[in-house]
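Ops channel
N.P.: pipeline sanity check, posting one input/output pair.
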């Protein structure tokens, strides 16, 4: 039983070192992700509610064409009401509400104007660039062509030119949050794979380490109770042996040998006090 306990304890210690780093990363990333409300992280208060619909004249049916349509909505935009057409294949287009004519994709200036009409923050626009559907930025992770509008406070808005609406808003803290999320799931490349081999493997190791601790706990308690039932000298001798064993494991064989040499020297001094040889004229005589 003692050998089995020592072997399980050895495995438990080494597994604890292996899962120590993942536990640290999970704890730090989890703490960061709960530091702020998720609504503040997402910047939900930076975009105001859509204005109420106001149509001054008659409305025209949009020129949909032969493509199957999934939905058709009339929305109020900064320059007037517009039809938002969502096709069955996932594409979207805007159409003029008065004429029904399909509108071309938004330009950079129109995307900025659309954002400013609903933006509630105080930052200024610092840059506008185009993103590709084939290689979307990491903080978007959507295969759509879009205008990325950068603000002076680090916030980035993504506007889809074909449907003329904001499809993503990323605050500076959101990007830090996203990095911590990648650490939490151990997927810094895509930050979406929550069942990758790393997180599964370390999760299994953590489970095994916890089960070993549960098995070792009653064995350790039982051993201590047995030690308490022993007579005083036997218990002290067992305690001394355990301390010597722990000393050998912690300090190594070199320190144990050094302690042995010191003990031999102490024994020699003790014998020298009890036994002395006094040389007189004639034969030596031993005095005790």
């Amino acid at each position: 039983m003692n050998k089995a306990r020592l072997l399980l304890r050895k495995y438990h210690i080494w597994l604890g070192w292996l899962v120590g780093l993942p536990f640290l990363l999970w704890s730090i990333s989890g703490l960061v992700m709960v530091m702020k409300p998720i609504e503040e992280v997402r910047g939900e208060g930076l975009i105001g509610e859509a204005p109420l619909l106001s149509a001054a004249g008659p409305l025209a049916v949009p020129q949909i064409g032969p493509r199957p349509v999934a939905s058709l909505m009339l929305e109020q935009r900064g320059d007037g009401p517009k039809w938002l057409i969502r096709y069955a294949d996932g594409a979207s287009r805007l159409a003029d509400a008065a004429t029904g004519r399909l509108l071309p994709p938004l330009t950079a200036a129109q995307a900025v104007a659309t954002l400013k009409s609903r933006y509630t923050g105080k930052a200024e626009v610092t840059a506008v660039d185009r993103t590709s559907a084939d290689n979307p930025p990491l903080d978007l992770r959507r295969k759509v062509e879009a205008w990325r509008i950068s603000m002076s406070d680090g916030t980035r808005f993504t506007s889809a030119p074909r449907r003329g609406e904001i499809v993503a808003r990323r605050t500076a803290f959101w990007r830090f949050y996203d990095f911590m999320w990648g650490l939490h799931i151990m997927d810094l490349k895509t930050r979406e794979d929550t069942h990758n081999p790393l997180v599964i493997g370390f999760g299994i190791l953590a489970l095994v380490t916890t089960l070993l601790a549960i098995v070792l706990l009653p064995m350790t308690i039982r051993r201590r109770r047995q030690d308490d039932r022993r007579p005083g000298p036997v218990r002290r001798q067992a305690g001394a042996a355990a301390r010597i064993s722990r000393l050998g494991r912690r300090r190594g064989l070199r320190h144990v040998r050094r302690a042995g040499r010191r003990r031999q020297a102490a024994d020699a001094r003790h014998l020298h006090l009890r036994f002395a040889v006094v040389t007189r004229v004639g034969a030596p005589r031993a005095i005790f």
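N.P.: looks fine end to end. Residues 139 and 175 are 7 Å apart (CA to CA).
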